[in-house]
Design a protein that fits this description.
Elements (H helix, E strand, L loop, with lengths): L2 E5 L4 H12 L4 E5 L2 H14 L5 E5 L5 H13 L4 E6 L14 H23 L9 E5 L12 H20 L5 E5 L8 H9 L1 H7 L3 H13 L4 E2 L3 H12 L2 H12 L8
Parallel strand pairs: 1-2, 1-4, 2-3, 4-5, 5-6, 6-7
Helix pairs in contact: 1-2, 1-8, 4-5, 6-7
The structure holds NADP nicotinamide-adenine-dinucleotide phosphate (NAP).
The site of NADP nicotinamide-adenine-dinucleotide phosphate (NAP) has 28 residues, from helix 1.
């Protein structure tokens, strides 16, 4: 059986993909940084369906040697793939001048370099005769430059552009969908952010299960971009028609008071 490769499997959205696919009898290859979290996730998934094969491998995606080891491990087990779900990402949020060099490299590597690298490794290991599926979780933040969230929005926009180009290179050879969620109820700090957005947060935020389900359906249809939820589609439209100076000033005033780190 061919496997689904999921990065960021131990996070909120990653787990939602894992449980949906486990319920559909899909074999899984899961990564995250923490062996303990991966072991716990595997146990929970097997409690739902013990007929599937679940292989986990801890990998710090910022580390190219660790990524290489992951693919060596995959080859040692002769694992072949049918689907890749790029979920891992870090949402450090602060003014550009407040970044340390380490944080800059960390966020850029996880959000972009590692996605390219894992996607290439995946495409070299497709099971024979399978039309592979690639889902990538970008963000609504990738739809516009965002002052005070500039690195995050730039890295998420980079993914949108990259996969649009790859779709053309791999036309007929892979189905590729990039997902631009708005708020998703995952970590406590994100729940707090969504609550702080008042009515807008209530209307637009989605559960991880909703995002995962819509994404798996969208990639079957080879949909280029998926924006989960009516209000997020509406926001995307507004962002596209609003003059950039108005939009960016609004975003600057909205986000300049907020800082968030990720480790
Ligand atoms: N939640 C939202 O509102 C929202 C909205 C739009 C887009 N997104 C995007 O959706 C994705 C998942 O978000 P989430 O809310 O589920 O986040 P989360 O719960 O914080 O999960 C993040 C995942 O990424 C993994 N990760 C982080 N740094 C890593 C590294 N250096 N190497 C390997 N894995 C690493 C984490 O692994 P560990 O378990 O090892 O930490 C975890 O599995 C992200 O790309 C995020 O940008 C989220």
């Amino acid at each position: 059986m061919a496997y689904t490769f999921i990065t960021g499997a131990t996070g909120g959205i990653g787990k939602a993909f894992c449980f949906l696919l486990a319920n559909s009898n899909e074999d899984l290859f899961l990564t995250g940084r923490s062996k303990d979290k991966l072991d716990a996730l595997k146990k929970d998934l097997l409690a739902v369906n013990d007929k599937i094969d679940i292989i986990t491998y801890p990998c710090d995606l910022t580390d190219e040697l660790n990524r290489r080891d992951t693919f060596l491990y995959i080859d040692s087990l002769n694992i072949k793939f049918k689907r890749l779900i790029n979920v891992a990402g870090v949402d450090i949020q602060k003014g550009f001048l407040a970044y340390t060099d380490e944080k800059l490299v960390f966020q850029t590597r996880v959000n972009t370099e590692s996605v390219f690298s894992v996607t290439l490794g995946f495409l070299r290991r497709i099971d024979n005769g399978i039309l592979p599926e690639i889902i990538t979780i970008s963000s609504m933040s990738g739809a516009t430059p965002m002052p005070y969230f500039a690195i995050y929005s730039a890295t998420k926009a980079c993914l949108i552009n990259f996969f649009k180009a790859l779709r053309v290179e791999l036309k007929g050879k892979a189905k590729i969908t990039t997902v631009l969620p708005g708020g998703v109820y995952t970590r406590p700090d994100i729940l707090k952010d969504i609550k702080g957005q008042g009515l807008w947060g209530k209307l637009s935020a989605k559960t991880p299960e909703f995002v995962a389900k819509k994404s798996l359906k969208a990639v079957k249809r080879n949909k280029k971009i998926l924006i989960p939820g009516f209000w997020n589609k509406f926001l995307y439209f507004i962002l596209k028609i609003t003059p950039e100076c108005i939009k960016l000033n609004f975003i600057k005033n909205r986000w300049k008071k907020q800082e968030k780190d990720a480790f």
